[in-house]
Structure prediction request, 199 residues.
Amino acid sequence: MLRLIVISGLFALISVAGAAQDTIRLDLGGYQVDAVVQGNDTLFIANLDEAVIQPRTNKPTNRDMRQYRRLVYNVKKVYPYAKLAGEKFGEVNAHMDSLKTKREQREYIKQIEKEILQQYEEDLKDLTLTQGRILIKLIDRETSQTSYEVVKDLRGSFQAALWQAVARIFGSNLKSEFDAAGEDRMVDEIMVLIEQGRL
Prediction:
């Protein structure tokens, strides 16, 4: 019986070794494609982008479509600034850890703030109130911190409270959080489409 088990195991190993696959890369008219060779067959391998399936809603009215197009426009307008805020916030936090004194940190923050204002102040002044509210939410999405927390971390509690008061005068809230499953579901869907290059 033991001999039969050993012989069966050897046959299984031989069949597995015989079915080994070789992966190759082919050039098809300027496109690089991966393929697997199995015996005399060549099977192409395709890597597909993630498919996002969104629930079907009732047929939208013309008003709904106008509102959706407006939301897409607004999200596309502030998306680059939210991405930039996320990247800059990461860079600043990484650099702040290397600074030894509070004075060095304050000077560094002032320098970064000055650079950002010189480069983006005019563009940010042109944002509408709606675009500003969307930007506040997207900053939370990109940094995992509300705009209030970002200002508080970088400039202190007094500055955060001051800017929160200014935002409240204009009907905004720096403490707004991005709620992908709730009120910001449509914005999140638009963001996914933008990130996939489909919008």
About this structure: The radius of gyration is 27 Å. The CA atoms of residues 75 and 191 lie 8 Å apart. Helices lie at 2-18, 62-98, 102-125, 129-143, 147-155, 157-169, 185-195.
